[in-house]
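Thread: Modeling a multi-component assembly for a lab meeting

Hi all, long-time lurker, first post. My supervisor asked me to bring a structural picture of a complex we are working on to next week's group meeting, and I have zero experience with this. I have the sequence lines for every component (316 residues in total). Could someone generate the structure of the whole assembly? Inputs are pasted exactly as I received them:
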Amino acid sequence: MHIPDGFIPLWQCAIYWIIALIALGYSLKWASKNLDEKNIPLMSVLAAGIFAIQAMNIPIPWGTSGHMVGAALIAIIFVSPWAAVLVLSIVLILQGLIFGDGGMTALGANIVNMGIIGGFVGFYAYKVLKGIGRIPAVFVAAWASIFLAALACSIEMSLAGTFPLVEGLIFMGLYHAVIGCIEGIITVVVILGIDNVRPDLLPAWVSSRKQEAVE
Amino acid sequence: MNTKNRNLIIGGLIIALIIAVMAPFLASSNPDGLESSAESLEVPESEAAYTAPLPDYAIPGMEDNPLGGVVALIVGTIVVLLVVLGVATIIGKRKKNGTNE
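Re: Modeling a multi-component assembly
Sure thing. I ran the full set together rather than chain by chain. Output:
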């Protein structure tokens, strides 16, 4: 879903850049209050893993492929959408700067879609759904995070005059409804993995262990 | 940094590097959802406004060699880890040393 250069007119790119920079400011503020020696190592390795897995495009029908984004994973594990904004912004900046994945002019829009929308949808979807059980809630939240990010992307493409609105929504929605299943499965697997290896790093709301109310 | 955290970083990095090494061989070369939509909607390909040093996760001159992709992804994975570690450590809460909180 990395938008390349040339798909969005520059003046619209500027608007997404401004939104992204404001969100990045909030995410740094969140980091200054919530990151410490205990959770920084986990955030660092998850970011590295997200970068690597974003290069692993999995084939889906219609001659298309897709990869995980990871925003819901970060938002759920760090109990904040701002954590996802921070991690995805860093990943997207480095992908654009070093690997030309996603245009530099479109970087703001890519942060808006995958970081901000992905993170907020993942976080609030999990918050609303966690009553149905943590595994299905994680899956659906992760699925919704990439699906809605894709719909936002197609609306931006339509505002840019690059995609017609309805067809864009249908194609992007269809492809990412499938890619969302990949997102959901991997997000569940990673959370279960951390639950096994370092349960102390999972917050109470997604941990299998009954924790006493600590905070 | 205590042993548990060091093990977490080493273990997590190994998993990420395994993915990075496999990706150039296993990843589908089909266009992604956005590229596919653009093709279906007959949007012309666009020019990048900026030339990245390792475009498309490949080393210039060895685009057809998957080992170039492996190297590029290993570099990227380590750089991402170090940048997040660095940014988070600089921005994050200071160690409890009596001066804050």
